[in-house]
Every structure is written in structure tokens, then in C-alpha cells.
Specification:
The chain has about 400 residues and is α+β, with helices and mostly antiparallel strands. The protein is built from 14 helices and 12 strands. A hairpin with a 2-residue loop joins strand 6 and strand 7. The termini are far apart. The model is unreliable at about 5-40 (pLDDT under 50).
């Protein structure tokens, strides 16, 4: 709910701020969240149940009650992704408390104002997607009216009343788990610079021919395919120790702290998808290098290079850049060449020792220009069979 910080007042409050002019009837304002005579009372009850409080404040009143300026309140609300409500009486005690907490972190010097706005934005963007999914996919399936004449809201209210505390507890649990994992990675960083600009392996996995599929498949079928792809990819990435950065329908972006983990994930994705007859072919591009992390996303030349490699990768294949290949060789996950691997195996056999065991094989491809990145040397990544 983005507040309106442009209104001027007629009187001055006890704290020196200017009070807004008297509000006109909500129907004249056209504020979407203000109660009107035609509002569905059940919908208002549902909103009050979810928010845990009734509408009491205009944005101006909420900002004043929280002890923050309208300008800062507006920045927070916009960052959280809420729509403009003008000066409708649509805010609750929870809105006031949220403002007070964010402003308190700034006043205590724990966060800068810019960082507090960033916290509001990242939280708003993440939870907005979660809420949309829960309503569209989860609650929609649970709230089909069991009897003719019943409205969806009438069915939804008792369901939400039962689920809300459980889902809230689960959300906090998952957030704490993710926070602990992320904090652990930061603590292990070599220095302060590495906390922001880190060396990571980044991979894009892309469904081949997705655009053609969108013209042939029904919307429901397409939605099921995308959901199956995203679910499978997310599970495989998490199980192997990577991090899913984001999904883009026909494409997923993930990262891992080391090249070996990222390589294992890439090949497992290709292997899993190729064994599923309902799935299109997959191609993966990966790069290794310095990555800038912001609000859970990753940026930089390494990310761009991984994306470009994906676009030129063969079907059901994985391409990596030279830095990625060098990292696999450095860590002993892949030989510098098959000739070297054969020589090492022959030497080990001659001396009665076990030869080195490599997880992956690398095959250099033709150098080629990549738009915006100059000439790159892709390497084809494959999995080595046991005993090779």
C-alpha cells in the first residue's frame, strides 16, 4: 500500500507535522481499499482475519503514530510493493508497528536508511510471489464451494482461519533455516569483499524449443510442464548443495560455491530431464568467477557469460567457460586432457598404485565470439564413467 506523500494539511499536530485536510467520502476518492457501502462484509472479515487487526489509520495517521515522516513512510511502503491508497483509512496497528520497527533500526544505527528500504523491498518482493502462489494454486484448490449458493469467500474464511497460524509458523521456520545457511556462508568468506563480490559457479538450465511449445500446448498443460520443470530443478539443485537463484518459466538460474558441485547439478539436470518423456530437451551453460550478490540475485560478467553459453549449448549438453574448466582441473575433479588421464593411469598401474579418479571430462570446443563478451573458448562437460 503505497502511501500518498503529496497531500498538504490544514492544521498542525502536536509533533509539529501538518495534519491532512478532512477526508471526503471514499466513493469520491476512489480508494480501492477504503470500506464502501458496497464492500463485501465477508471480504472485509477475511482481510481483518489475515491482517490480525481492523482498519484504523490513514497513511498520514499511521506515519505520525509510528513517529516517522510521511516521506520515509512512503519509501517503505513503495519498497514493500503496496499499491497507492491515497489517504484512505485502510491501515492497521500492524502497519504502524512495521514502520516503527524499520525506523527504529535506522535510529539505533543498526541499518542505514537505504539498507532499511532494501530490507523492505527484498521482503516485499519475496513474500508477494509466495502469497500469489498460495492463493492461486493452494487456496484455490481447497475452497471450491461444497454446496450450491455458497460463495468462495464463505468457504475460504474457515480454511484460512485454520491454516494461517500453521503457515505462519512454517514460514518463520524456513526463513530461519535459510538465514542460518546464508549466515554460515558469509562467516566462511575469506574477507569482507568476498561477502559481496564472491567467486561462485553460476549455471543456467534452459528448456529447448519452449517458444514452439507455447504455441502447441494448452495453457493448463503448459503450466503443468513449467511447474514440473521448476520443481524438479529446485529439488535437484537443493539436494546437491546448490542454491536456486530464480526461475524464469523455461529457465532456471542457480549457483554453487564450487565448480564440482555446479557441474554435478548440471549433468544431473540433463540426465533427469532426458529420462522424462514429457520434458523437452535441456541445455546448460556455466561459468566460474567473481559474482556480485544483491537481494538474493547474482550479477556480473560471470552470470552474463553463463547465459550466453546456454544459448549456444547443444541439446542435452553442458558447456562451461575456460575459468570453470580450469577450476575443475585445479581441484582434481577433471583431468587437463584425456592424454594426461591415460598417462597417469599407465604410470599408476606400472607402480602398482591406484590411478587418480576423475568425476568429469572436459572437451575443448571451437573458440567463438559471444555478443558483448568477445571471444570465448567453451568446453563440453561430461561425466566420466567409473573406471575411466
Amino acid at each position: 500500500m503505497t502511501v500518498d506523500d503529496t497531500g498538504s494539511g490544514e492544521g498542525e499536530g502536536v509533533d509539529g507535522r501538518v495534519d491532512p485536510p478532512p477526508l471526503s467520502d471514499s466513493s469520491e476518492r476512489g480508494d480501492p481499499l477504503a470500506p464502501e457501502p458496497g464492500d463485501d462484509p465477508l471480504a472485509l472479515r477475511l482481510e481483518q482475519l489475515i491482517l490480525g487487526a481492523e482498519r484504523r489509520y490513514t497513511p498520514f495517521q499511521a506515519a505520525r503514530s509510528a513517529g516517522v515522516s510521511m516521506e520515509l513512510a512512503s519509501r517503505f511502503w513503495r519498497a514493500m510493493g503496496f499499491a497507492d491508497i491515497g489517504q484512505a483509512k485502510a491501515l492497521t496497528e500492524a502497519d504502524v508497528l512495521a514502520l516503527r520497527r524499520l525506523a527504529g533500526l535506522v535510529e539505533a544505527g543498526l541499518l542505514s536508511e537505504a539498507m532499511a528500504v532494501q530490507v523492505a523491498r527484498s521482503t516485499g518482493q519475496t513474500t508477494a510471489r509466495l502469497a500469489e502462489w498460495q492463493i492461486d494454486s493452494f487456496l484455490e484448490g481447497l475452497t471450491e464451494p461444497p454446496e450450491p449458493g455458497m460463495t468462495r469467500t464463505e468457504v475460504t474464511y474457515p480454511i484460512v482461519e485454520l491454516l494461517l497460524p500453521e503457515l505462519e509458523e512454517f514460514l518463520v521456520y524456513v526463513w530461519r533455516r535459510q538465514l542460518a545457511a546464508s549466515a554460515g556462508r558469509v562467516v566462511q568468506a575469506a574477507d569482507d569483499d568476498e561477502m559481496v563480490d564472491r567467486r561462485l559457479a553460476v549455471g543456467f538450465a534452459d528448456l529447448v524449443g519452449f517458444t514452439r511449445l507455447t504455441r502447441r500446448m494448452e495453457e493448463e498443460e503448459l503450466g503443468e510442464l513449467v511447474e514440473a520443470f521448476e520443481t524438479t530443478a529446485a529439488d535437484l539443485v537443493a539436494a546437491r548443495g546448490g542454491r536456486l537463484i530464480k526461475t524464469l518459466g523455461d529457465e532456471v538460474l542457480y549457483a554453487a560455491d564450487d565448480a564440482g558441485t555446479a557441474a554435478d547439478i548440471a549433468l544431473l539436470l540433463v540426465e533427469t530431464m532426458s529420462n522424462d518423456e514429457t520434458m523437452p530437451e535441456l541445455r546448460v551453460g556455466m561459468a566460474f568467477g567473481t559474482v556480485t550478490t544483491r537481494m538474493g540475485d547474482v550479477f556480473g560478467t560471470t552470470v552474463n557469460l553463463a547465459s550466453r553459453l546456454t544459448s549456444i549449448a547443444p541439446r542435452d549438453a553442458v558447456l562451461v567457460d575456460s575459468a570453470f574448466a580450469e577450476e575443475l582441473i585445479r581441484t582434481g575433479d577433471a583431468p587437463a586432457s584425456e592424454a594426461q588421464a591415460a598417462e597417469e593411469a599407465a604410470t599408476a598401474e606400472k607402480e602398482g598404485e591406484e590411478p587418480p579418479v576423475y568425476r568429469f571430462a572436459l572437451q575443448p570446443m571451437w573458440q567463438r565470439p559471444v555478443r558483448g563478451l568477445g571471444v570465448v573458448e567453451p568446453w563440453l562437460l561430461t561425466r566420466r564413467a567409473l573406471g575411466e
